[in-house]
């Protein structure tokens, strides 16, 4: 049945329906929403949202009371002013979608709202002051957007503001661009706020004394702003305050006295300019419930004395990078971590090896173990659940804004898993089990997060209704997490495995629908029979294609060239076996989770690298074909070329040009023995930038690499840089309109924070990763090293008024030990523009190429000349040994250029 037939039947059904209809006012409001949105839910059809059970719509007495479309990452558009027509709306949740534009003032008409969650989108403009009219609001979450301007408060002319929200317990407005001072009027003694979260904005000035009037506050986050001064003198009035986050500001003066704050469990005031007198204050160790104190990167001095005892709750005291000269632990056994690295005391002879002068690993790995069963070997992208059943789980990131959970243990993970299952069972949801994995602290906002997988019961996949119900429980905070994980939010990934669409009609309409169908069935019966035959034939063809998607590729028997590809050859298994001497161990040049990599020699004498996928890492046939088609589009001197592939006898192999000098990461670490002076680093930067610019602007269609890092930049025999590993790449076709909505993938440290938060992938995500790579080149450091993020470390010490921008302590001594490297300041400036927080502020890769060429001209070399020849690569002493600037390490080329997995288009 074609689309016109479907539309015709829908019109007949709508005309004949006589059952009760949704309020005209509510339906009118929804109509304006659907006109402004793309990729809305597929069952938003007809004129009766309440009667037809539209996804995300909940009704009471035919009035829409809840609208929740969270985690529909493809759902984009603006919110029109007509949303104000939904006057009976009590809950509005649009979390983790692709909405943009301003939040309309008409949202203030929804005076019955108790829950408003618009976080993790791309809303811009100011926070509407009309939100102050929502007198019943309990939960306000506008975080993770691009909102700017001042925090709105009421005035004498009748303008409302957030200070009027006397029933609100949650102000979540972090990760925006709010500016100006925190208005003293924002807080008053009539409020019942519990969470005041304004982290990662551009706020200035001091914390107002009025905050201490809200004695119900439990968590305060003003970290990552530009606040100054000290804490208000009445701050101790916040007797219920358990977590205080003030890091990365400009606070100064004496470290505040928090002695009276007996509920405190977690304090982070690091990276400020707090001072101390002769001793670190006693509250640091004496508060009864305090578990974690982070005061690093301040100006604290004197003695840290805990010889008089400490609280049994303590887990961590971090005082690194201060001016502490003495430490007195006393005679008692210390059962918590103390970190004093970076203080003068750790520079004394014999002290540097003490445990307190080391940085311990805080976050340990975790993955939910199987529930007394043996995990299954699953196929077709299924995953084995904790109950050892293969299924397609609903996945996403479960994120906590309370950082006190960073010292997790196994029982804490179990508590979260149990509480999740308790909530799903209480709501009668079709959930069999849940699993948590990949715990990490997000470097862009310090939030703590897991990957959450939710597995279906009694079947291997969810339907749309099941996913919608799960999303509703998580987005509307119905799930009550353990206190140590609260407040949380969830960002769900697109679910692609629906078992079928829910039926839209209710049982009361069956008679009418049957009558309508009977009226037209005689006209359709022949078409249906013909359609069934056609579908049957298509299914047979599809089954054949799934078994071997290459069946319609007729090889040229002489050349082996696949006609749909541009220059890639179809090799037989026997051919590749001959070229690798039967996959001999002596030909192995790398290995990993994907399988083995072999060096091979073609009959022409050409050297190739052959990736032989292991059975457990093989892709589906269609996905493998997609990867080959993508790689065959790439032809550029600064991009690794695909020579061919093999899909035969149950084997999957990719054949690449052989790159002899390993990866840039090998060279920077000293593993390859290649001396990377400043000129070579500039030429490598230029080559990699040209390759990436080609992928973005000249490949047809454009390709977003999605995993730019030093391990994926290879150096050929002339030290030309080549971009490699397209295992995570995405094509940017015209319909994507400048971005791709996709599950976040990449490598931590290089990952674009805006892409991570919005799941909207653009070329600027590659630009961010390239900026991190540039900082890696000038510092010789990994992006994340000993818990320090290279972008943050450079931004923290850079001073453009000083020589070398004050970067002496962080620059790689290999490039600075002889003479000052020319152009390095402009190089760092360019890198920092590439890692701007917001994508629109970053340059394009073609602009990066031009600026690197300008820097090379400053140095005085021709950027069009060939890179160093092989004979220039090595500085050879007598006897032929390679001089290695980073110490003698055996060279072991890992073959990191080979792809791991490509996501189907």
Spell out the CATH superfamily of the domain at 664-873. Answer: Transferase(Phosphotransferase) domain 1
Overall mean pLDDT stands at 81
Distance between the termini: 27 Å
Global shape:
globular
Biggest pleated-sheet summary: 13 strands, mixed
Number of helices: 17
User: What fold name goes in the CATH topology slot of the domain at 664-873?
Assistant: Transferase(Phosphotransferase), domain 1
Tell me how many strands there are: 45
What CATH first level of the domain at 664-873 would be assigned?
A: Mainly Alpha
Q: What is the second-level CATH architecture of the domain at 664-873?
A: Orthogonal Bundle
Spatial strand sequence of the major β-sheet: 2-3-5-7-9-11-13-15-17-19-21-23-25
Q: What report would you give on this structure?
A:
- A hairpin with a 2-residue loop joins strand 36 (642-648) and strand 37 (651-657).
- This protein starts with a helix and ends in a 32-residue tail after the last helix.
- Among the domains are: 242-360, Leucine-rich repeat, LRR (right-handed beta-alpha superhelix); 383-492, 2-Layer Sandwich (Alpha-Beta Plaits), CATH 3.30.70; 569-657, Phosphorylase Kinase, domain 1 (2-Layer Sandwich); 664-873, Transferase(Phosphotransferase) domain 1 (Transferase(Phosphotransferase), domain 1), CATH 1.10.510.10.
- It is α/β, with parallel strands linked by helices.
- Residues 1-20, 501-519, 543-548, 554-564 and 866-905 have low confidence and may be disordered.
- Helix 10 runs antiparallel to helix 16.
- It contains 17 helices and 45 strands.
- The strands form 10 sheets. The protein has a 13-stranded mixed beta sheet. Strands 1-4-6-8-10-12-14-16-18-20 form a 10-stranded mixed beta sheet. A 6-stranded mixed beta sheet has the order 32-36-37-35-34-33, with helices on both faces.
- ATP binds at residue 611.
- One of its GO terms (cellular component) is membrane.
- It comes from Lupinus angustifolius (Narrow-leaved blue lupine).
